[in-house]
Amino acid sequence: MRIALCDDIKRYNLLMERLFTHFFTQQKISNYEITSYTSGIDLLRNITSSCYDLILLDVDMPHLDGFQTAEQIRQVDSQIDLVFATNMQDQVQRGFDYHAKGYLYKEVNQEQINILLNRLLTERKQRKKNNYPVRLIGERADILLDLTKILYFEIHNRDIYGITENETFAFRGEIKKLEEDLKNKGFLRTHRSYLVNINKIFKKLSNYIVLHDGKEIPISKKYQSIVKGELKSQWS
Prior knowledge:
The protein has 236 residues and is α/β, with parallel strands linked by helices. Helix content is 33%, strand content 30%. A hairpin with a 3-residue loop joins strand 13 (201-204) and strand 14 (208-211). Helix 1 crosses helix 5. The chain is elongated.
């Protein structure tokens, strides 16, 4: 697990490092790395996609506060787990604008760290179960799509597009093969060009379904009875 700590007060970074290290030692986890920064500017100089698994940001930093730093981090990587540290509870709601995984209230203690890391490690294990490996068009490296974030897959010729709320992933493939791979993983074929995450469906109308974000996905005649049956089973 790769962790970045960012607080303009060095002693807080040192405290966090001790608390994190204690947790990993107690859990007999050796595969971790902790890097500390004393400003959001320094952190952003070193940010690349997927360079960290978790970033702990102090909210109240000069020049660039934790929220401003988080906004720029999200422009580079939407998947990094962000956690904010603050001594003001009224700042909590704003953190969710950046999809924060949680808050730590100063002075942070070992119990807070233990609860946070146990939850995040459990979520990481669950995400691995819900991942689907793909090789993106024009790239050699394989990546893992988090299926819980996929709204739907759409195919154009042999290009498949995985659509999330914030990103689109394009890769080569056949939708029939994709459908087989995702059997029993919560995806429903509604049309020869669409495979939809059942958990993202808000309602079904006569010839299309509506997702929670308002997107309308067509239902072809071939799949009408299948869609109706699957949704009845899910929603009953």
